[in-house]
């Protein structure tokens, strides 16, 4: 390399530093998009303890900004998210899932389904979530909801969240005003189970 | 070892440092760029209704594609602020009986303040949001007439959330409540 003429030397240097910049941006992007949000697990769900917090580190802040910008901190809201069912299989919009559990101990809670692009699934009924207000509890005080292209019951089933298309899916369980014990130890929450029902369409 | 070889070795040491620096800068910049985009879109979108310095987006549905993971159970109201010139005064007077909150976010996306229906049970909110440099304003306002909130960055946004459901009466009450929010200079 010591014999390179000045023009080629400049070209090599430009290439070297361009490669350095691409590697810098690329490694950051891979880190943010391929590595899941850090946090603690509760069943199939994960909750980030620093979402919306001023104590969040730079990586957490960037990941939250990409996937759940404008989050509130855990004293106000806890966000449990998942992209897989109880067996660890990735959630798919073309499959049907039964979500069941006890109502979380919070002032108010809701469960929302998002498509892979983190936006709501289009549907004419504008039904995107189930909550403590829309589900019916059985004699044991448990709720059951369905997420998928078809309902387990009627088309007007208020505990059904319709999905459309194919591809990945993400669920978010929001707890507004969670009980203090859950705020202190979010991993202690008995989160709803997620089981696939039947074959995918 | 020639001088030219030393020159190349120097670059082979500097290049990995550039990789690390660019990596760190990207991580640092992502939330700020996203907030910049949200503030720019929200401030300039002519399809959104604005009143009393407050932007009133339509009820959340699948056509909302400005902010990821919107909550369909909430009605929102937003204000965007730049505290460089003067503080932001935020007032609210409501008797909305369900959950509501007002959260303030910095330009780096941190939630630095929140008040809700439980912390303001009378439904009255009066805030003056100031830049840390506005010390004079801060000291004159610390007499109880308006709660002073010091923002960590001069740009940012306010997001009001109101819990709604399918009941038209609840939706009408939430609409009335968010229209009582005022953001002024």
How would you characterize the overall build of this protein?
- The complex is a heterodimer of chains A (201) and B (185).
- Chain A has 201 residues and is of the alpha+beta class.
- Chain A has one domain (39-55, 71-197): Sandwich (Jelly Rolls), CATH 2.60.120.600.
- Chain A has helices at residues 6-34, 58-68, 180-184, and strands spanning 40-42, 45-47, 77-82, 96-101, 106-115, 129-131, 143-148, 160-162, 169-178, 193-197.
- The longest helix of chain A is centred in the first third of the chain and has 29 residues, at 6-34.
- Chain A is elongated.
- The model of chain B has no long low-confidence stretch (mean pLDDT 88).
- Chain B has 185 residues and is of the alpha+beta class.
- The chains are: A alpha+beta (201), B alpha+beta (185).
- At the A-B interface, α1, α2, β5 and β9 of A face α1, β5 and β6 of B.
Which secondary structure elements does this structure contain, and how are they paired or packed?
The complex is a heterodimer of chains A (201) and B (185).
Chain A: H1 6-34, E1 40-42, E2 45-47, H2 58-68, E3 77-82, E4 96-101, E5 106-115, E6 129-131, E7 143-148, E8 160-162, E9 169-178, H3 180-184, E10 193-197
Parallel strand pairs in A: 7-8
Antiparallel strand pairs in A: 1-2, 2-3, 3-9, 4-7, 4-10, 5-6, 5-9
Chain B: H1 3-44, E1 49-51, E2 54-56, E3 74-82, E4 88-93, E5 100-106, E6 111-116, E7 124-130, H2 135-141, E8 147-150, E9 155-163, H3 168-178, E10 182-184
Parallel strand pairs in B: 7-8
Antiparallel strand pairs in B: 1-2, 3-9, 4-7, 4-10, 5-6, 5-9
Q: What multimeric state do the chains show?
A: heterodimer
**Main pleated sheet of chain A:** 6 strands, antiparallel
Poorly predicted tracts of residues of chain A = none
- Biggest contact: A-B, 57 and 51 residues
């Amino acid at each position: 390399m010591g014999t390179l003429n000045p023009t080629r030397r400049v070209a090599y240097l430009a290439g070297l530093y361009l490669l350095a910049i691409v590697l810098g941006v690329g490694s950051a992007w891979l880190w943010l998009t391929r590595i899941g949000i850090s946090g603690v697990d509760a069943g199939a769900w994960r909750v980030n303890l620093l979402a919306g917090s001023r104590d969040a580190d730079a990586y957490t802040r960037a990941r939250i900004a990409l996937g759940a910008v404008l989050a509130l901190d855990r004293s106000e809201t806890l966000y449990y998210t998942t992209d897989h069912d109880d067996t660890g299989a990735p959630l798919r919009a073309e499959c049907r899932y039964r979500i069941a559990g006890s109502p979380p101990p919070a002032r108010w809670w809701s469960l929302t389904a998002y498509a892979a692009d983190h936006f709501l699934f289009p549907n004419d009924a504008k039904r995107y979530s189930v909550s403590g207000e829309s589900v019916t509890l059985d004699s044991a005080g448990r709720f059951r909801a369905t997420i998928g292209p078809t309902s387990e019951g009627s088309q007007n089933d208020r505990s059904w969240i319709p999905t459309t298309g194919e591809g990945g899916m993400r669920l978010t369980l929001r707890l507004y005003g969670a009980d203090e014990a859950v705020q202190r130890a979010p991993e202690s929450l008995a989160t709803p189970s997620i089981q696939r029902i039947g074959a995918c369409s | 070892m020639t001088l030219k070889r030393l020159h190349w070795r120097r670059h082979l040491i500097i290049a990995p440092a550039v990789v690390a620096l660019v990596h760190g800068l990207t991580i640092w910049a992502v939330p700020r760029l996203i907030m910049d985009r949200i503030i720019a879109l929200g401030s300039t979108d002519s399809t959104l209704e604005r009143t009393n310095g407050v932007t009133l987006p339509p009820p959340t549905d699948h056509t909302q594609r400005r902010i990821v993971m919107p909550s369909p159970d909430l009605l929102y109201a937003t204000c965007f602020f730049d505290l460089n010139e003067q503080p932001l005064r935020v007032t609210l007077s409501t008797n909305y009986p369900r959950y509501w909150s007002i959260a303030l976010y910095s330009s780096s996306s941190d939630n630095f303040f929140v008040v809700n229906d439980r912390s303001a049970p009378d439904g009255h909110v009066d805030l003056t949001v100031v830049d840390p440099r506005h010390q004079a304003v801060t000291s004159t306002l610390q007499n109880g007439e308006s709660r002073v909130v010091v923002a960590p960055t001069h740009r940012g946004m306010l997001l009001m959330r109101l819990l709604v459901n399918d009941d038209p009466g609840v939706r009408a009450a939430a609409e009335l409540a968010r229209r009582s929010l005022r953001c002024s200079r």
